[in-house]
Amino acid sequence: MAEYPTSFDRDDLLKCARGELFGPGNAQLPEPPMLMMDRITDISADGGAHGKGHVRAEFDISPDLWFFECHFPGNPIMPGCLGLDGLWQLTGFNLGWRGWQGRGYALGVGEVKLTGMVRPDRKMLTYYVDFTKAIQTRRLTMGVADGRVEADGEEIYVVKDMRVALSES
């Protein structure tokens, strides 16, 4: 396993987006505005609800975020798919953090429940990703995880069986 810290600030996440954290051709985060977190507060390969790894991260919400203006005019709401993408981003980040090689891509999700909304008056999202499987073989590198998102402490999204893979092609 590579030796990386267990928390990352926004500058670190931007280095990852530029391909500078895990090296060229390996896991990268998207750049803003698609980067859906401001910091990773904790990460492991053996922690979390199932002892197979976890990630905790935060995203500061402000009324001037790009999606509020267009989704929906007069009724601004963060698209739920962006919260799901944040969970996928963190799942892939964990695989790169483990030192596993390849570019990340989402493979799917088993179940998604959206029970709340992110409006401009919210202050912070907290992401929780708990791995149920982390697989690295000669032919496959993949993480399977459950996740949830809280807005100001209120659970608003729950997902089961997110799948992210790394591929060297």
UniProtKB/TrEMBL annotation:
Pfam families: FabA
MF GO annotations: (3R)-hydroxyacyl-[acyl-carrier-protein] dehydratase activity; isomerase activity
UniProt KW keywords: Cytoplasm, Fatty acid biosynthesis, Fatty acid metabolism, Isomerase, Lipid biosynthesis, Lipid metabolism, Lyase
Signal sequence segment: none
Domain of life: Bacteria
Pathway assigned to this chain's UniProt record: Lipid metabolism; fatty acid biosynthesis
Protein name: 3-hydroxyacyl-[acyl-carrier-protein] dehydratase FabA
Species the sequence originates in: Pseudooceanicola batsensis (strain ATCC BAA-863 / DSM 15984 / KCTC 12145 / HTCC2597)
